[in-house]
Structure formats: C-alpha cells, structure tokens
What we know:
This is L-lactate oxidase. This protein is of the alpha/beta class and 337 residues long. 42% of the residues lie in helices and 12% in strands.
Amino acid sequence: MTYEEVLSNAKTCMGEFCKACPVCNGKACSNKVPGPGSKGSGTVAIRNYDKWQELCINMDTICENKPLDLTSEIFGRTFKYPIFAAPIGAMKLHYGDKYDDLEYNDILVSSCADAGIAAFTGDGTNPAVMEGAARAIKQKDGNGIPTVKPWDINTLKEKLAMIKDAGSFAVAMDIDAAGLPFLKNLTPPAGSKTVEELREIVKEAEVPFIIKGIMTVKGALKAKEAGAAAIVVSNHGGRVLDQCPATAEVLAEIADAVGNDMKILVDGGIRSGVDIFKALALGADAVLIGRPFVTAVYGGGAEGVAAYTAKLAAELEDTMAMCGAHSLSEISRDMVR
C-alpha cells in the first residue's frame, strides 16, 4: 500500500472534521474542536508546521560514502527510527466512527512495534481506554508508552499499577492536558501538578517517566527537578492554549538547557523525514507525530502505519546522506539554518 492510497482511503472514513490533507498543516481544520483543530484562533497548529518549513538544510556531500544508521536507543530499547506515534484520544468525537479509542490503540501499538518504532497511547475518563492500551502494549512485550492525564494521585496510582503489569518500558504524562475541557472541574480535582507532586508520581511509576507539554526552559528545569527521565517539547498541537510559540521556536534553547540530563523529544507540525532531521539538529533525540498517524490508521490500518513510517524513514535517510550525517549522533546544529 502506498501513502497516496492511504490518504485516498482515509478521505472516505475520517468523519466531518479531518480532511486527510496531503500535508497535515492545520489549515483546513483550523479551530474545529471537536475535530483535529487548535484552540481559539486555530493558528498554533499552523504555526507549528510553518516554523519547521522556515528552517533550511545545509547540504554537504563531500564526505565518506558509507551506509547510514537510523537506529535510536532510548531507555535501553533500540528502535529502527527516531520516531514515535503521539498519543491521541476521543477518536469517534474528533475523527469519525470507524474506530473507538480501544480499537485505534490496538492497531497503532501493534503496527508501530512491527514497523520498528513505538506508540504513545492516550488516556480518558473511561477506564477501559487505559486498560485496553495496557493490554495492547503487554502483547507487544512492553513496546509502547502509556500516557496518563494529570489526574489526582489516587487515580494515577491505579493507572500506574495497570501500566506496571503491562511491562511498558516507560510511561508519560501530558501535563499540558490540564487545559483540556473534560479534565476541568473533576472530583477529585485533576490538572496542574507541583514539582513535589510530580516527584511522587515519578517515584510511583518505577520506570523512566516522560513529561509531555514542556514549552520553556523554566518548565524543563522543573521537570528535571521532579526526576523526569525525558520531556516532550509540545504545545499539545495548539489544543490547550492559543497564541503560544511553535515547538520549533523553543526546542533548541530547551535542549541546550537540559539535553545533557534527560532525553528530549518534540512534537508539533513534524510531517516529513526532513522535518525530523531538523528536529534532531536542534537537539531532539526523537520526535512524536500525531495527526498523520491517525490518517494512516483510518486509511490503511496496520498497512497504513507501515507505509507512513517507511515514507518518513526514506526522507530522513535521504536528508542525512545529503548532509554527510551517517548516524543520528552525527546530525548537528550547523546542518540547519
């Protein structure tokens, strides 16, 4: 199955909001929420995409001609590429009736593992969502990263116990989900967490803990203080705060501040292997990609995920070859401008 076929199929079953665009740049869906759009003016997802496009690649082919190594090692696991599928939930609400959250996670976790990468899975008020994600990850020998919302500590302990049983090699929290409407006014309260609260959660997890939703050096330093093993530079696709910077605008300064102390991941508008190269050059260890993996699943199931992952890998490999980087560790800041 080609990626063009995936897109064509997705257009027939994506629901009324997502248009399965050839390039997912946030423009067609804008501020459509429900739907895949951004909050308020709807410009943050567009800005995320545009800022990656403003970066240019410095070509240099005066170098040794030898095979390229795209493998990435994180927390003791080796992946074929530095690519993760980002956590996405409420599938029927935002993307149409073809899959619910459990069905989507089942396909995503399995197909990402088969493609040599891994998926972050979403969370929701329905406990079955995390239960299903944990089962899917367990079936793939822990090759997946459950992503919990910033619930109250007792709810988190219940979910973390489930995640431990699944044998997941890491766990994440999208701390910026504090801005999602369904998380507000819950009893017991859910939302923002102090460093001390995060430290308790990190200890409870007992595996490397990833804090997703970091957009400032100050936030990164607090995540480090809390004991996080990694952060995801992310503005939640523009869905929780209008008028904030693009992730490409803040990645380098955050990586410079804490990159020697923890793994740095980034999401937000990354749509091609060229974009992945740019993110790695700015200091990321790997990237997360969200909406296009939804299109891949809706348009082709496991075959769609395989096709999209192969497309990204081929583009990344070509870019590395044309810049003289033979491994991910050789990608450097001076390769972009």
